[in-house]
Structure formats: structure tokens, C-alpha cells
Write a structure and sequence with these properties.
Blueprint lengths: L4 E4 L18 H12 L7 E3 L6 H4 L5 H13 L19 H20 L5 E4 L20 H12 L4 E5 L6 H7 L5 E8 L20 E6 L5 H19 L3 E5 L17 H18 L4 E4 L10 H13 L11 H11 L27 H13 L10
GO molecular function: histone deacetylase activity
Pathway: Ketone degradation; acetoin degradation
InterPro entries: AcuC, HDACs, His_deacetylse_dom, His_deacetylse_dom_sf, Ureohydrolase_dom_sf
């Protein structure tokens, strides 16, 4: 299904590290790459390095005074609360600019490869820092690498870019950067802002001409409801928008085991979402797909398996869910974390959903969330909101 696929990786990406007690532990991407390597998934891709994003590149989405502030913190390790650095979410640390610029550079390298036709799909599992704002850090995010990739693509001449964010938290930073730009369609499926950070992402936040799309799902939503919502909103909008390239943020903190949120997806439901996005990239964006990681705070049981499935799906070599995790990887997990690793690549679920076209139930909170989004944005795209 796919031509050349690139995975952008440098061991130095693990330097994006807020400290030993912070939820966003870099071991999660280290374990992901180790699992993908042991399963042979990386044999099916081109593994390439990256360079830090330059200041003028970061300046496509961030204010210069903010970049300068991050650099000052980077030199001293001292907080700058005006820049959002030095909080419990975003602790200040020496080297923060270099670490953050490298993550941004990795996603930029992925975007460059796809735009130049050097790869059909490209992935940066260390990226997806979607909460960073133009002038401040937020929600574990210093530089907004998905936003940077989109801005760079527009600068290169892309007429339309579609962004789909499946992180459990609203993709507020990316939405804010392109809220009034009709060339960028941002779609975020997330837990309701009534119950989860960042408190934004209501269906009424529609941007210019309906190009900001928000599906705010109730706490407790699992595979069936999430996939129902995805299919009710994402495919019709992507087909209508007709973008030249798809950028996605693949946060896996929607999993039932994630300690920071309240959705109930399984690994198998998430894997199904990867399959659907892969198909939609080919159907609606000429196969051009840039994917990043994102949130995910169950560091051993969820993140490595989820993003190994993502890489495998993009590479066209999907991993059988019943596959056992390699002995070498399990030993590495115990050595690095002291935790008991998962034995297989599945949670043992077989995700199914009922299509909204078969009718909706106004008493069902998931269906109410779906219809709130469709009613808010579908007419702005010339689509009928009714199933």
C-alpha cells in the first residue's frame, strides 16, 4: 500500500526530559524504538537522523522573544514563568532549547521528506508536542512541532493541509496557530474539556469557515464509541477538504490504562485508528502522511506497543496482534524500568462500531457529542449534518 517510509530518529531525542518524576518520560520512546527494532519493523523503513530546527524555522510559529527566553532558560536552567517554563507541567532544565529544537527538527525532517517525494509517509514518534503556544510552553510542550511542520508546508506552497489529532487532550496549540487560516483543517478528537486539560476544544470552536473541528467525547468512552465518532466526522471532512498532505498527532493517552485521562480505548482500538488514518491518507491526500507521537503516560504497557503498531502500519507490514513481544525486549524493559513488560502485541479486543448512518440516539452522550460537532461544522463545508 505504501512506497518509501521514513522514521526519523536520533538517540539524542531522549534528551527532551523534564526529570525523573515527570509523566512525559523519554524512556517511552526509547522502549518504542527498541520494540520496533526487535520485531523487525524498522527493517521495513528508512531510518534517518535529524538536526535541530533553526531559529528562523521555529519562528514560523513561535514569537522571537519566546525563542530567546527558552534559550536563556537553556543556558541557566532557571525558570522563566512568563515563558511557561518552571511550572510543574513544564519544569525548567539546562539544555531545554536544544532538546526541544531537536524534536521540532525531527518532525520538520519528516515533513520535508514527504513534501519532496523522498518518502510517502514519515514518522517522528518523539514529536507531537501540540500544546505549545506561539509565546509560551504549555502542557509538557515547549516548541510545537506539528504546528511547525504545517507552517513549513504552507511556506513551501502547500495549498491545503489537513491535521488530525487523536490525543486524549485537545490539540489547542495547533488549533490556535491556524484558527483563522482556511488552508488548514484541524480535527481533534479528545476527552471533553469539562473533565480534562486544557479546557478547550468545544464543538463551537469552529475557526474560519469551519476549519477547526472538535469532537469532545465524554469520560469513559471506549473503542466502540470512539471509532463511531471518528468515522462520523473525520472521513467526510477529509474527503471534502481535499488536502495535499495529512499531518497527524497520534497520542495514545486515550488508552484505558493511561494515568492522566479518562477514556477507555484498548491498544486494539488505537491500532484500528492507525489503519483508518493510513487509508485516508491514500484516499484524500495522495498518500502523503506525516505522523508524530504525542501524549502517552503508561510508559511500558501502552506506548511502546501502540507506536510500534503505528510504524508497522505506515510501513505496510502490520504486526499480528497475537505476536509475542520478543524476549530481548522484555529483558530490556525490566533492566530500564524494573516493570513487568506485556507479553503480546494486543489487549485481546476486537474493536467494532456501529456507523452513525444507521441512526443516532439522542440519549447517548457519545451520539450527542458527534451530532454537536456535525451540526457545528458540516454545513460550513456543504455537508448535511444529519446521518
Amino acid at each position: 500500500m505504501s512506497d518509501a517510509v521514513r522514521v526519523v530518529w536520533d538517540d539524542a531525542l531522549t534528551s527532551y526530559d523534564f526529570g525523573p518524576r515527570h509523566p512525559l518520560a523519554p524512556v517511552r520512546v526509547e522502549l518504542t524504538m527498541a520494540l520496533a527494532r526487535e520485531l523487525g519493523v524498522l527493517d521495513a523503513v528508512e531510518l534517518v537522523g535529524c538536526a535541530p530546527a533553526a531559529d528562523d524555522e521555529l519562528g514560523l510559529v513561535h514569537e522571537r522573544h519566546y525563542i530567546d527566553a527558552v534559550k536563556r532558560v537553556s543556558k541557566t536552567g532557571r525558570p522563566d514563568l512568563n515563558a511557561g517554563l518552571g511550572t510543574s507541567d513544564n519544569p525548567a532544565f539546562a539544555g531545554v532549547h536544544e532538546a526541544s529544537a531537536l524534536v521540532a527538527g525531527a518532525t520538520l525532517a519528516a515533513a520535508r521528506a514527504v513534501w519532496a517525494g523522498e518518502a510517502e509517509h514519515a514518522i517522528n514518534v518523539a514529536g507531537g508536542l501540540h500544546h505549545a503556544m506561539p509565546a509560551n510552553a504549555s502542557g509538557f510542550c515547549v516548541y510545537n512541532d506539528p504546528g511547525l511542520a504545517i507552517a513549513w508546508l504552507l511556506e513551501q506552497g502547500a495549498s491545503k493541509v489537513a491535521y488530525v489529532d487523536v490525543d486524549v487532550h485537545h490539540g489547542d496549540g495547533v488549533q490556535a496557530m491556524f484558527y483563522d487560516d482556511p488552508r488548514v483543517l484541524t480535527i481533534s478528537l479528545h476527552e471533553s474539556p469539562r473533565t480534562l486539560f486544557p479546557g478547550t476544544g468545544y464543538p463551537e470552536e469552529t475557526g474560519i469557515a469551519g476549519t477547526a473541528v472538535n469532537v469532545a467525547l465524554p469520560a469513559g468512552c471506549g473503542d466502540q464509541g470512539w471509532l463511531r465518532a471518528f468515522h462520523a466526522v473525520v472521513p467526510p471532512l477529509l474527503r471534502e477538504f481535499d488536502a495535499q498532505i495529512l499531518v497527524s498527532q497520534q497520542g495514545c493517552d486515550s488508552h484505558a490504562l493511561d494515568p492522566l485521562a479518562n477514556l477507555m480505548l484498548s491498544l486494539d482500538g488505537q491500532r484500528t485508528a492507525y489503519q483508518e488514518l493510513h487509508k485516508l491518507a491514500h484516499e484524500t491526500a495522495g498518500g502523503r502522511w506525516v505522523a508524530t507521537g504525542g501524549g502517552g503516560y503508561e510508559l511500558v504497557q501502552v506506548v511502546p506497543r501502540a507506536w510500534t503498531h503505528l510504524i508497522a502500519e505506515a510501513a505496510g507490514v502490520p504486526v499480528d496482534p497475537e505476536t509475542r513481544t520478543p524476549d530481548e525486549w522484555r529483558a530490556f524493559v525490566r533492566q530500564r524500568t524494573g516493570e513487568v513488560p506485556p507479553l503480546t502485541m494486543t489487549d485481546g479486543r476486537n474493536p467494532e462500531y456501529r456507523d452513525i448512518a444507521q441512526g443516532f440516539d439522542p440519549a447517548d452522550p457519545i451520539d450527542r457529542a458527534i451530532m454537536a460537532t456535525r451540526n457545528a461544522v458540516f454545513p460550513l463545508h456543504g455537508l448535511d449534518p444529519m446521518p
